[in-house]
Amino acid sequence: MASVLSYESLVHAVTGAVGSVTAMTVFFPLDTARLRLQVDEKTTHAVLLEIIKEESLLTPYRGWFPVISSLCCSNFVYFYTFNSLKAVWVKGQRSSTGKDLVVGFVAGVVNVLLTTPLWVVNTRLKLQGAKFRNEDIIPTNYKGTIDAFHQIVRDEGILALWNGTFPSLLLVYNPATQFMFYEGLKWQLLKKRMNLSSLDVFIIGAIAKAVATTVTYPMQTVQSILRFGRHRLNPENRTLESLRNVLALPHQRVKRFGIMGLYKSLEAKLLQTVLTAALMFLVYEKLTAATFTVMGLKSTHKH
């Protein structure tokens, strides 16, 4: 219990949250383009032009606050759980790749169950007002985060706040894989040098995220569509939570766009998520090291 409630776990959680918020703010417009591409049926070129020309220059930052709020909470939960479990299991010894993967997986499950409602709401807000060519999409009119929560619960039931939970649970191996590769690459570099440079951290963070994103991208597309929820894919089941719908969405996408439909807008996702993850790890590592130095403490985690 002392390891779980430790000051060190709190430091990792706070710096991880700050790092993710900083990185997402910098690259937020790329995430807006990526999300629009996954849900609608346009091309990358058409979406980028529409966002800038037909809407407004501030449109790429639509939904920034709810996304940042959700991301802050999500990464706080993930980093706190990850580092607490690692402290309990590893107990000062060097962690192994297998342990990092398992700990990352468990932390991901905890994170999904606690924070999915926040992500459902921010996905709705981020896509509200967008011009879609897909006639199956139902428009929304939310005044803000609280109003979105209220309308979703009132019109679709409280379980709608957990739309996309099933694919999200399948996707917990994304951050788990990311952290596994990150910790592995970090350990390999630390065997050759005493400390990692900012460039080292940025590069290994980018590589780790690129691998994790490419492997899990088809399910991420399904997740985005389910979180959006305002779609007539299955009128008799508005929550879109059944296993049948999770399996049907990829099938429909392949039928309409071909196998590459599963990787629609992957280039936008890679550009956004790789750069964001790399910057997040950089800020996280630097802030963590600086905090421990100022407080005169030393991290007990060995990589």
Quick summary of this structure?
By secondary structure, this protein is mainly α. It is built from eleven helices and no strands. Residues 230-241 have low confidence and may be disordered.
Describe the structure.
The chain is an all-alpha fold. Helices cover 70% and strands 0% of the residues. The chain has one domain: Mitochondrial carrier domain (Mitochondrial carrier fold, Alpha/alpha barrel), CATH 1.50.40. Helix 2 (28-39) runs antiparallel to helix 11, helix 5 (97-127) packs across helix 8 (173-190) and helix 9 (198-228) packs across helix 11 (266-294). The protein is globular, with a radius of gyration of 20 Å.
List keywords for this structure.
303 residues; mainly alpha; Mitochondrial carrier fold
What is the N-to-C order of secondary-structure elements (H for helix, E for strand)?
HHHHHHHHHHH
What percentage of residues falls in helices of 4 or more residues? over 70%
Give the class from helix and strand content and strand pairing: mainly alpha
Distance between the termini: 22 Å
> What would you say the CATH architecture is?
Alpha/alpha barrel
Based on Cα principal axes, name the global outline: globular
Q: How does the major sheet shape up?
A: none
The total number of structural domains is 1
Helix count equals 11
Kindly state the mean pLDDT as a whole number? 79
